[in-house]
Specification:
Mean pLDDT: 85
Shape: flat
Structural class: mainly alpha
Order of helices and strands: HEEHHHHHHHHHHHH
Low-confidence stretches: 1-7
Distance between the termini: 62 Å
Helix content: 55-70%
């Protein structure tokens, strides 16, 4: 006779399988976990000390008056209120940056897409062409190229010499408030290599059978581009748009080098990050600069969220 109580399953139903007790990880696996955590420890330390701590410190300083020489004095929302009510140069930096982003992002992506489509065709020596077109992206953000760019558009620069050859009078493109910003826009467009490479990778993923089928239906090259290439490339376009908008809002080096750090002439190249740098390291107004940094973060976050929200209407995914 058995001493244990057995529970019989109801008639017509299979007995319920016994649930095994939770398995414990064997000792070698736990030792492997500890080794993995040990290797990840430098990354966690860097995240906390170099990213999280400065981020929280910046957030605190944004509510203070801090000149790096005295202890921070609590100011509440004073820095944020001053930006939009009592600082015309801040509003000018916002205006310059928005114009720069609005011009550079579509022009650079359009140029990069056109070059990528051209380089996607079978052609002899194509690897050399792709390398040559990518070189500006390797050099474009450097100080040296910004200096050369300034010389190119200066009074006695190459552009004016070229125009003089055709009898056209040049002008000081860099020192003229009406044209200074557009020279920096051209510099940014010139750095089209990175989005071009991403577009090129996306073009390689489009099946050739779709182009063949469109050709059989009588579609010309332009129609194949708009009906086959663009729809299937929308995820890549979306990725590049988000990436380039974030980079454009953080543009700093070209304006700093070309204007000598002043944002001139007449604040026509006063980028947001350049004015933030002036406030923090020239005027020693670190609390105000920290507040500007958080506003910039908020602006970029809003634009990114808007892009993701609009993406549902125009980005095409094959698995949906």
């Amino acid at each position: 006779m058995s001493t244990s109580t057995e529970i019989s399953a109801p008639a017509g139903r299979e007995p319920t399988a016994e649930v095994p007790p939770p398995a414990t990880r064997p000792r070698p696996a736990r030792r492997t976990d500890r080794v993995a955590y040990l290797f990840l420890l430098p990354w966690f330390a860097g995240l906390l000390l170099l990213t999280a701590a400065p981020l929280l410190g910046s957030l605190y300083l944004s509510f203070t008056r801090f000149n790096l020489l005295q202890s921070p004095a609590w100011n509440g929302f004073g820095n944020y209120v001053k930006m939009f009510t009592d600082d015309p140069r801040y509003l000018q930096s916002l205006k310059v940056t928005f114009i720069y982003v609005a011009l550079t992002v579509p022009l650079q992506l359009g140029f990069a897409l056109a070059v990528a489509v051209m380089l996607n065709r079978p052609m002899r020596g194509m690897a050399w062409y792709r390398s040559i077109y990518y070189i500006p992206s390797l050099l474009g953000g450097s100080v040296a190229i910004a200096v050369i760019w300034g010389q190119l558009f200066d009074d006695d620069g190459v552009l004016n010499a070229f125009l003089a050859f055709f009898g056209v009078g040049g002008r000081s493109w860099i020192s003229n408030p009406d044209t200074a910003l557009y020279t920096l826009v051209l510099l940014n467009i010139w750095q089209f290599g990175s989005p071009m490479v991403i577009f090129l990778a996306g073009l390689k993923q489009i099946p050739q059978e779709l182009y063949d089928a469109a050709s059989v239906d009588g579609a010309n090259a332009w129609r194949r581009f708009w009906s086959v290439t663009v729809p299937l490339l929308t995820p890549i376009i979306f990725f590049n748009v988000v990436l380039q908008i974030i980079q454009a809002f953080q543009a700093f080096t070209p304006a700093y080098v070309v204007s000598g750090g002043s944002g001139g002439p007449s604040d026509s190249t006063l980028f947001y990050t350049l004015y933030l740098y002036q406030q923090g390291f020239t005027n020693l107004n670190m609390g105000y600069a920290s507040a500007m940094a958080w506003v910039l973060l908020l602006i970029i976050a809003i634009f990114t969220l808007i892009n993701f929200g609009l993406a549902r209407r125009w980005v095409y995914y094959e698995d949906r």
